[in-house]
Design a protein that fits this description.
With 97 residues, the chain is an all-alpha fold. Helix content is 63%, strand content 0%.
């Protein structure tokens, strides 16, 4: 599997949802949510492959709009998993109450 940066992965995902006729507003919101995730990865010196469920839980405790950010991250990982670009999804078991 290729080692994609968060920027490359986000670009692929955003291009995909644009091609699926998502509204420009939705694409922009997803981009902002994933940029927040990218900022977090930079802060904790992690990449997409090394981030854990524990890392994500910690991040979600300190961000606003955690439910939407978790959804965006989960969809990004699912997109990468389905294309064989990443083997795990640390967001899949996390639930926001």
């Amino acid at each position: 599997m290729p080692n994609l940066s968060i920027g490359e992965a986000t670009g692929l995902y955003l291009n995909h949802i644009q091609a699926q006729a998502y509204s420009p507003i939705t694409v922009n919101h997803e981009a902002l949510r994933l940029q927040a995730f990218a900022d977090f990865l930079t802060m904790v010196h992690k990449d997409l492959e090394s981030v854990t469920e524990t890392d994500l839980r910690g991040w979600l405790k300190i961000v606003r709009d955690a439910h939407h950010k978790l959804r965006a991250v989960n969809l990004l990982y699912r997109f990468l998993n389905e294309r064989g670009l990443l083997a795990h999804n640390p967001a899949v078991t996390i639930k926001i109450k």
